């Protein structure tokens, strides 16, 4: 959740954006500045293979598939958590609360360690993958939103159109990439997943995912998943799509949203 305080501080980054109302504690959030020149940039064929139960109390911030399990981070102060989930049944196999002072955000797993961002605290928690206990913490500048990795470095978003590469041992920023589409910046990049050399990013405030070429910073397409909303029609607390996990071995995606009752197992072209 990025609330009104965020909008005031970062207004200069988002002057070109419109606004829309969504259910975020009755506050207003910005709409990403997406410029589509070709409708094919919205096209994607996908198939829902299975609807898996998802905890509607999980304010999903991060999602990743690792060693045959799904790991999920959830947000809100005093309610943030890290979870291990059976990807076929949705059963929560393990869950640890995050200290109340932190608002949990995106996660990734690198070198058998869980890295978890926090929103306003500007600290990344490094968790033991077996016990979920915090083993180390490092600081970064700005807010923490989404997190992924390319097998070597951490890849982080902060709500702007800038993606940061962070070396996991020194915790130093080694590269930044500006994300654009049709020469216009795309901001509000949220939960991240690194897939076959491309970065997939949920766009905060919308049920859409951007597929990004990190070499050029160019967004190749925006995939519209708003049709998934029809499965949440009996869930008044369902908020924005947020959560991409990828099983590389089987080319299977798992998508969910904040407080959604479904985790979708999918094939995506």
Explain what this protein looks like in three dimensions.
This protein is an all-beta fold. The protein has one domain (4-268): Neuraminidase (6 Propeller), CATH 2.120.10. Helix content is 2%, strand content 49%. Strand 9 and strand 10 form a beta hairpin. The longest helix has 6 residues, at 4-9. It is globular.
Features:
4-stranded antiparallel sheet, disordered N terminus, 269 residues, 1 helix, mainly beta, Neuraminidase
Q: Which topology does CATH recognise? A: Neuraminidase
Q: How many helices does DSSP assign?
A: 1
The helix content is under 10%
Structural class: mainly beta
**CATH class division:** Mainly Beta
Which regions are unreliable across 5 or more consecutive residues at pLDDT < 50?
1-30, 35-39
Average pLDDT taken over every residue = 87
Spatial separation of the terminal alpha carbons = 30 Å
CATH superfamily: TolB, C-terminal domain
H-E string: HEEEEEEEEEEEEEEEEEEEEEEEE
Radius of gyration: 17 Å
Strand content: over 45%
Tertiary shape = globular
What is the count of distinct domains?
Answer: 1
